[in-house]
Design goal:
Number of helices: 4
Number of strands: 0
Largest sheet: none
Radius of gyration: 18 Å
Shape: elongated
Structural class: mainly alpha
Order of helices and strands: HHHH
Distance between the termini: 18 Å
Helix content: 55-70%
Length: about 110
């Protein structure tokens, strides 16, 4: 029984989202623990890059997430994980169309 018939289900998208969450948490934790730096500091850039879609839009709208707050980072990583999930869903759909000879198999 599918309680959400409009929501696409994809194991591939789920795997991509879980991998993204693991990598994003590692990058954010590593970026926060790094205390090195000389005359130039790139502190915060890895975190911005791993959360680029949401961080960039938030920055342009004047609501830039605070990378030091866990709640902001959890929200941004969660939204990016949803985007990665739907990218995975789209990739599976595209592969089905391409390998089905140009017709949508359903």
């Amino acid at each position: 029984m599918n309680s959400l018939p409009w929501f696409p289900r994809s194991t591939f998208g789920l795997v991509l989202a879980v991998i993204y969450i693991a990598v994003a948490i590692f990058v954010v934790a590593d970026d926060r623990s790094s205390t090195t730096g000389g005359w130039i500091s790139l502190h915060g850039i890895p975190t911005f890059l791993i959360t680029f879609p949401v961080a960039f839009i938030g920055e342009k709208l004047g609501m830039r997430p605070d990378f030091r707050r866990n709640a902001d980072m959890a929200f941004v990583i969660g939204v990016c994980a949803v985007l990665v999930y739907f990218i995975g869903v789209g990739q599976v759909k595209l592969a089905r169309i391409l390998f089905a000879g140009g017709r949508d198999p359903g």
